[in-house]
Amino acid sequence: METSINLIEQEAGHSLWGDAWLRLRRNRAAMCGLAFLGFIILLCFIVPFFPALPDPAAQSLPNKNAGPSPGHWMGTDHLGRDLFSRILHGGRISILVGLITTSVSLTIGVSVGAVAGYLGGKVDAFLMRGVDVLYSLPFLIIVILFSALAKGYTHDFTEWMVELSSFDHDTIAPFTSLIPLFVAIGALSWLNISRIVRASVQDIAGREYVEAAKSLGLPLHRILLRHIIPNAIGPIVVYATLTIPSVMLFEATLSFLGMGVQPPYSSWGILIKDGADRMLSNPLLLIFPSIFFILTLLSLNFLGDGLRDALDPKSSKD
Q: Is 138 helix (H, G, I), strand (E, B) or coil?
């Protein structure tokens, strides 16, 4: 008996996320993208607090448009401000704009698309007609109006955050002032992802494991969260990685119009715009911020492709 039992090998169960992580680790491009994103996030959110880093708002007109040096690793801009310091401080804002806004967009879009695709019928028709109506609205104008109307509330919220935290006004203001921008863009940029999720859910809803979950009497939210959305995560992740850089560019457009990041604060989009305006006099103002932005964009694309392959349920039995 003991011999027969020993011959039976029991394979340990693997979760979807465990298998996905194993496949992702084998994708060198995705892991390089993940490592670079982690490096950029640490660089932008930790290094700016070092006292040795120059103040990004400190001007030195006699030292304007200076080249790279030990005191200014990437040179200075047209006002003598340290470009490396401005890139790191601007990266914090750009990364937060991309991550938070995309999170808001995904939360709304995935919820609407999953419910519409799973329930179908009148619920699907009502939700999708609402999406069509929102598509017809002028997106840029609505975001600008919402941001302008909410500015008064953000000032009070900033003062409240200063009282609760140990940070000063200059540290918190660049982020709290962008809360209307986060909400406005996220609340209006979920339309495409809702249609993508709806199509994926409609394809998944008729499969055997979903029918089995229905027969067990599981509630709607459990079926969606445990059986449908995890199997539709591939397109969602890819869309998210493409949305983050597009949101960064949209934030740069709003900042140029005076509705986004306000001077003396900056973001990568503003730095690239300023560099393009002064490209002939000092091309480094365009080159260095563009390198950071392009490498971040490529890393997101590589990571998105890797996550799409890793989370594809069809490859779960490779």
A: coil
